[in-house]
Design brief:
- By secondary structure, the protein is mainly beta.
- It has a single domain, classed as Jelly Rolls, CATH 2.60.120.380.
- Helices cover 7% and strands 43% of the residues.
- Strands 1, 2, 4, 5, 7 and 9 form a 6-stranded antiparallel beta sheet that branches. It has a 3-stranded antiparallel beta sheet with strand order 6-3-8, with no helix packed on it.
Length: 134
């Protein structure tokens, strides 16, 4: 769920538009093609990162992104994921500062483990955390 208690970021380094986001760690045991689709009543956008997600550099480590690929203003990301590699899925809305409930649906050759990314999701209350980790 994206709400106004969460941190915001700009999807592009040169943009002033801010978006609430949820960063989700993805862990897979089996290498293969994985599909991630959002399900929400609002226009969603998704970005998949290989390694770390840097709030102030949203293009760094960006693996794939999508806005409306699943139709009905929902994102669709299909990617070949390697086992034992860290991935982060960042879910947000297309509109600026919109709050929304959403679900991520995964289609995959094996189970997908979703966990909140503690690093990125702490940034609203602990802005120094970014400086400490970079």
């Amino acid at each position: 769920m994206l709400n106004d208690n969460q941190a915001t970021y700009s999807r592009s380094e040169n943009s002033t538009y801010q978006h609430f986001y949820e960063a989700i760690d993805i862990s897979v045991k089996t290498s293969g093609f994985y599909i991630f689709i959002s399900e929400s009543n609002m226009d969603t956008s998704g970005a998949l990162y290989n390694g770390y997600f840097y709030l102030t550099y949203p293009l760094f480590n960006l693996f794939q992104e999508n806005d409306d690929g699943a139709g009905n203003e929902q994102f669709y990301i299909k990617a070949y994921l390697d086992s034992n590699v860290k991935y982060i899925l960042v879910a947000t809305t297309f509109g600026e500062l919109v709050t929304v409930q959403f679900t991520i649906i995964a289609t995959s050759p094996d189970n997908v483990k979703f966990l909140p990314n503690q690093y990125a999701n702490k940034l609203k209350t602990h802005p120094q955390y970014l400086k400490d980790q970079v």
